[in-house]
Amino acid sequence: xxxxxxxxxxxxxxxxxxxxxxxxxxxxxxxxxxxxxxxxxxxxxxxxxxxxxxxxxxxxxxxxxxxxxxxxxxxxxxxxxxxxxxxxxxxxxxxxxxxxxxxxxxxxxxxxxxxxxxxxxxxxxxxxxxxxxxxxxxxxxxxxxxxxxxxxxxxxxxxxxxxxxxx
Length: 167
Fold this sequence. Notes:
Structural class: mainly alpha
Mean pLDDT: 91
Strand order of the largest sheet: 1-2
Number of helices: 9
Distance between the termini: 48 Å
Number of strands: 2
Order of helices and strands: HHHHHHHEHEH
């Protein structure tokens, strides 16, 4: 079931690649401005409050976008998976410093499931690790070593300075 679901998501993402695979900070405009004028006008007309509401309620965002990108409905439906449950992690106080609530919830949920389904021996590889928050939680909660890879120098410097100041 999940393999067919993945293939369907892949197909729909390939069909809509024009809307999401572009360099956002290399252009001051939407790449689809001339081909999808109605979408561009709708996006330009959104207020900050409307954007915040659409971020908070994905169903509203899906409904609104489907008027411009019909595949959005199927993508949303296919991306709804049953939520896996894992035992809560025991994490020392303060490890969440600098991490907002939603991101912290995602990190701890992913870590708990990763630990639950991981091999007893081995280590973790954190790819595009940013500031290494996920890796730190995995290390503390599982006791396994973590190798974090990050290519952005600025993030690596932040982590290095954080580690120097806490040791």
